[in-house]
Amino acid sequence: MAIIISTLNNPWFVFLADNAAAKAKELGYETKIFDSQNNTALESDHFENALVSGYSAVLFNPTDAEGSVVNVRKAKAAGVPVFCMDREINATDAATSQILSDSYSGCVELAKLFVQQTNKKGTYVELLGLVGDNNTWARSQGFHSVVDNYPSLKMVAQQSADFDRNKAMDVMESILQANPNIDAVFCGNDAMAMGAYQALAAAGKASKVKVFGFDGADDVVSAIKDGKIVATGMQFPKVMAQTAAIYADEYLKGKREFAQKLPVAVELVTKKNIENYAAFGKKEQ
């Protein structure tokens, strides 16, 4: 099985890839992990390589909801099933199945806490992920479906930082120059939350600004324990990765009926319940 991942420059996606590979190997398949480096052209090359090399299935984390569709269709035309993990594509007749976090609902819960923590007033910043990824907008829309009902909460900046920690730090530094007295930051993933926190700490504002993330990354789990980050939405990449591998195995053994989209619940993690969680999921019992 070919495991094609949007980027391995983020521990979350490394974890997703490694778990997909481990489950596929457990099921008896050879695997290879391909890193698209958030580049649709490189992703296309990986699909070409996978098809030419005779891979039986693709476990796929798309780079771009729209731009990745053509690659999935190419695989389908070649008789190779594709199972999307975590990120979706803008087609319901291309991938065999898409196993996705329920980002919208997860961010509704985060937003409710955001409103409580800010006492329904103040100024805030939103850091968006990759603009071509539907998760970016699902998270933003879930958040705004709650927060926009409170007119005393004012968004003073909304910028993309591409789900990247270093870019988020740079973007946050620039935003702080124009808006030095913000009360909170909502980030579309944990890497950006840590980047935003670094910028706030460097400006001497970390204790005054409430930061919210999304993913359940190791450093944010630690940061919530330490009171540096308020909360995150815990995703379950192991569940998505293993499900994709199991579905691919079932397909190759003859099954053809799969849910086009399988939502995986996201759980709100705060200092109150942090002891129940580890990086990227619940603590092993």
UniProtKB/TrEMBL annotation:
Q: Which GO terms describe its cellular component?
A: cell envelope
Location in the cell reads:
Cell envelope
Molecular function GO terms recorded: carbohydrate binding
Q: Which Pfam families match?
A: Peripla_BP_4
Give residue ranges for domain Periplasmic binding protein: 2-255
Coarsely, its chief localization is: other
Which UniProt keywords are given for this protein, alphabetically ordered?
Signal
Q: What InterPro entries does its record include?
A: Peripla_BP_I (IPR028082), SBP_2_dom (IPR025997)
Determine the domain of life of the protein's source: Bacteria
Under the heading PANTHER family, the entry gives: D-ALLOSE-BINDING PERIPLASMIC PROTEIN-RELATED
Record family assignment: Belongs to the bacterial solute-binding protein 2 family.
From the Swiss-Prot or TrEMBL record, give the protein name: Ribose transport system substrate-binding protein
What species was this sequence derived from? Runella defluvii
